[in-house]
Design brief:
The protein is α/β, with parallel strands linked by helices and 373 residues long. The protein is built from 13 helices and ten strands. Helix 9 runs antiparallel to helix 10. The radius of gyration is 19 Å and the shape is globular.
Length: 373
């Protein structure tokens, strides 16, 4: 088990069974009554029970909101806040699960400490009051939310994702325990793992890149690229441990840089068709890489010198049985080619689009969607 502090004073506990340290870490941060934001899958897998047991060992009371949805909305955040307010005030928040649970935990922290509604914090540093100490415990191998100060919360009516960022919302402590990923299904490991890979690649070439962010991106890519295929097997804890750490480093890269066009393309797909975020990102990532190569080819080669980076992403997607086209996606509503102009317009106004190394207009987004169709 290893303990270290990141460059932004975030304590990271890394190692198998480090979830057992949760009670001790909570007590160290002054927590005695905590809110846990998680989902039913985590509860069913027995992970929530492990977390509560660790807290009980330090006689810490836990209040659980276990109904976080896969793409959390303002409804999820408000419901978590209601659980926290049902009894005496809580003094610490734990996000236990994938990116959705951790985003919900951060969202609840905004409202519990600063009041109002999530729309009030859409943007950067809108919280004026101190926030509660918090702990992030990822159980997937890809989102990197545990390393970031942003909560991605969708509006309940429009399903538009709001990026609500504040350094005070960032988890002060993170537990990276690969044993928590052993129950992660192969399909989820593939979707979250490819998302982490996209984080490493897009942050490496984003216009806000810098030596520090690129250091995180490159190390993340090396870990993720080398372990993605092996990590699809649930019993390969070593590979999943490397993926978990790689995803964390990619999250740090985003925190110090930004993302790009693949994420801009993904958000409308998730909002309109509820396509899983990682799958939505992966659909256009190879085409975005090829589009950007005109200006970022040398950077891509520096990241991956063993061949064509876009081809490598396609190969990884095939290994993970991820869809290659929009038409292959299993969604409630059929995606028609006539939907593409609307998707392109929505992608062009996504926040991450402005940080893509090669500027895009609606016509460019249209071509990316058509290529992925």
């Amino acid at each position: 088990m290893q303990t270290f502090d990141s460059e932004l004073s975030q304590r990271v506990i890394f190692g198998e069974n480090s979830i057992e340290k949760l009670g001790e870490l909570t007590r160290t941060l002054g927590g005695s009554r905590v809110l846990i934001a998680t989902d039913r899958g985590i509860e069913k897998a027995g992970i929530l029970e492990r977390a509560i047991s660790a807290l009980q060992s330090e006689r810490i009371a836990a209040y659980v909101f276990a109904d976080v949805s896969p793409n959390p909305t303002t409804n999820d955040v408000e419901a978590a806040v209601a659980v926290a307010k049902a009894d005496a005030p809580i003094d610490l928040i734990i996000g236990l699960g994938g990116g959705s649970a951790m985003d919900c935990a951060k969202g609840a922290n905004f409202l519990l400490t600063n009041g109002g509604k999530m729309e009030d914090y859409w943007g950067i540093n809108k919280a004026t009051q101190p926030m509660l100490p918090s702990i992030g415990v990822p159980t997937t191998i890809g989102t990197g939310s545990e390393a970031q100060s942003f909560a991605l919360i969708a509006q309940r009516e429009t399903h538009i994702k709001m990026a609500c960022g504040d350094r005070k919302a960032k988890f002060g402590t993170v537990i990276l325990d690969a044993t928590l990923t052993e129950t992660l299904p192969r399909s989820v490991a593939a979707a979250t793992g490819i998302d982490a890979i996209a984080h490493a690649i897009e942050s490496y070439v984003a216009t806000r890149r810098n030596p520090m962010s690129q250091m995180f991106s490159q190390h993340a890519w090396q870990l993720l690229n080398a372990n993605f295929e092996a990590a699809l097997e649930s019993k390969n804890v070593a590979a999943r441990s490397n993926m978990l750490f790689g995803a964390y480093l990619a999250g740090l890269a985003i925190e110090n840089s930004m993302l790009g066009a693949a994420h801009a393309c993904a958000n409308p797909l998730t909002a309109r068709y509820n396509i899983t975020h990682g799958i939505a990102v992966a659909l256009t990532l190879p085409y975005v890489i090829r589009f950007n190569s005109a200006v970022a080819g040398e950077l891509y080669h520096g990241l991956f010198s063993d061949g064509d980076l876009a081809d490598r992403i396609v190969a990884l997607k095939q290994t993970g049985d991820l869809p290659n086209t929009l038409r292959e996606c299993d969604v409630q509503y059929t995606i028609e080619k006539t939907d593409i102009p609307t998707l392109a317009k929505e992608a062009s106004i996504q926040w991450t689009a402005q940080f893509n190394p090669r500027p895009l207009n609606i016509q460019d987004f249209t071509k990316l969607y058509e290529a992925a169709y």
